[in-house]
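Saturday, quiet lab. Running sequence design on the structure tokens for the scaffold JK sent over.
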């Protein structure tokens, strides 16, 4: 799929000059805001950037008239007669935001000119020799770079040090890198010659993020990542873990799983308890909270207590009298001492006397006389 550009629409003519719509809009914006930067016409971003050996990149390379040398002043002023081909290189292992921001700065290093950004990435053999082991392979690193929106072309198997022959071969105008010297085994700065010839443009390094920092995080939390990958189905051989270490990590994963289940059960219990308590509170409020039901119940019980109290006679403390139900006072009844009496005779006069004195009947019985003989 070829890249597409929006065709220019002619608005008006001024003599022999044709003014297109985009130029007119940009001029109006510049009048309103002098700091406004003219937006470049960029192709639609609909596919990865091509390699330098792809037909699209070859066509762009052949269309560039490299005999027209472009200076930094021309690029800053926007007076360059063609696209400015800027090159930046690196390893780009574990592609992260610092890499993308460096490419973005290189792409916008000359805002008044159209920039064609070329990225060079070293292969595994050269990288392992000059720098060390990488996490991603060279093919993986190439593919990660291709999908960055600021990239227009990728050069595979890029050299460690940029030469004049390399720049002429790929028609490179400027090299963009951060200004900090990049020290190598045989020199203090591999970009020293490029800087001396005036082909170097500086970008700023993103602080707080780097491939070395990401690798340090992995090494620091090695056990955690090994346990995670074991839980996800990786074998101990794939992770280069010994038999005993594998059993240890799997046991730790099992313990964590049990802890997680226990915590979940506890949370579920608390949640259910809260639901039940909320239901209890709502039920309590429905019974006693609305329409003063509790007060009505108390009033009913209080009326019953009053009714029970009214059935008993009231004592008059002042006169030591008792009020009956009619409200009249009467003296208390006299107490008659009870007398215990037992008679073995059937004398009626004694019985009547005892009844008169005690108010209770006496118990009498007669024994046969022959028992006492």
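Result came back. Writing it out in full:
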């Amino acid at each position: 799929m070829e890249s597409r550009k929006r065709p220019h629409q002619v608005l008006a003519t001024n003599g022999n000059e044709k003014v297109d719509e985009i130029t007119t809009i940009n001029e109006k914006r510049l009048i309103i805001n002098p700091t406004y930067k003219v937006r470049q016409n960029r192709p639609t971003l609909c596919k990865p950037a091509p390699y330098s050996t792809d037909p699209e990149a070859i066509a762009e390379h052949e269309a560039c008239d490299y005999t027209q040398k472009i200076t930094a002043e021309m690029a800053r002023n926007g007076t360059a007669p063609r696209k400015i081909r800027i090159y930046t290189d690196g390893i780009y292992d574990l592609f992260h935001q610092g890499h993308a921001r460096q490419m973005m700065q290189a792409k916008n290093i000359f805002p008044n000119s159209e920039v064609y950004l070329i990225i060079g990435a070293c292969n595994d053999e050269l990288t392992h020799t000059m720098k060390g082991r990488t996490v991603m392979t060279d093919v993986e690193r190439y593919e990660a770079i291709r999908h960055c929106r600021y990239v227009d072309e990728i050069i595979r198997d890029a050299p460690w040090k940029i030469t004049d022959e390399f720049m002429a071969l790929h028609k490179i105008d400027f090299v963009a890198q951060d200004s900090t010297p990049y020290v190598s085994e045989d020199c203090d700065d591999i970009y020293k010659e490029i800087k001396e010839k005036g082909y170097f443009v500086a970008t700023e390094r993103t602080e707080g993020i780097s491939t070395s920092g990401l690798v340090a995080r992995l090494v620091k939390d090695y056990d955690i990542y090994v346990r995670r990958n074991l839980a996800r189905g990786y074998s101990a051989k794939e992770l280069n873990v010994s038999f005993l270490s594998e059993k240890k990590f799997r046991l730790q994963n099992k313990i964590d799983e049990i802890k997680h289940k226990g915590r979940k059960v506890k949370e579920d219990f608390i949640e259910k308890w809260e639901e039940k308590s909320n239901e209890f509170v709502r039920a309590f409020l429905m019974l006693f909270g609305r329409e003063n039901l509790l007060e009505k119940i108390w009033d009913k019980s209080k009326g019953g207590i009053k009714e029970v109290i009214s059935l008993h006679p009231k004592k008059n403390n002042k006169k030591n009298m008792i009020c009956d139900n009619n409200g009249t006072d009467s003296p208390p009844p006299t107490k008659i001492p009870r007398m215990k009496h037992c008679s073995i005779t059937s004398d009626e006069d004694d019985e009547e006397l005892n009844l008169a004195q005690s108010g209770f009947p006496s118990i009498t019985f007669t024994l046969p006389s022959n028992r006492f003989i």
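Notes for JK: Residues 243-289 form the longest helix (47 residues). The two ends are 150 Å apart (CA to CA). Ask whether to fix the surface positions before the next round.
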